[in-house]
Amino acid sequence: MSAPSEQVIRDAITRLRAAGLRPTRQRIALARALFAKGDRHVTAEQLHAEARALNVAVSLATIYNTLHQFTRAGLLHELAIGTGRSYFDTNLSHHHHFYHEGSGQLVDVAGDLVQVAIGPPPPKGTRVAGIDVIIRITERTR
Prior knowledge:
Elements: H1 4-18, H2 25-35, E1 41-42, H3 44-53, H4 60-72, E2 77-80, E3 86-89, E4 95-100, E5 106-110, E6 134-137
Parallel strand pairs: 4-6
Antiparallel strand pairs: 1-3, 2-3, 4-5
Helix pairs in contact: 1-2, 3-4
């Protein structure tokens, strides 16, 4: 039986190849960091710090490029939370989010718990591809 870290590496390589991405050393290292901990939400800066802690020499620009490659390949979902603030979600199931404005924490909300009534039809020649709901929360004040 192989060591757990070897299995995590194999899983990362399999995931990358299934998405049509070449499993380079940096992509494997970042896939391991992203997917070995289950479903989660990360910023590029958080992933960069994790990579550095794992002694993976990678620039923040490479982190951004890789996160966008993973998103285009269908491995992640990008959540734009305000100007210049993006989180990358490893949970690809149909769901929505609570966003805590104070802490910046995202919490998954099951897709069937949110109902959205679509108003006007989309412009001619287009279709609704999906709806992402982000419910902003904050601490109660007395």
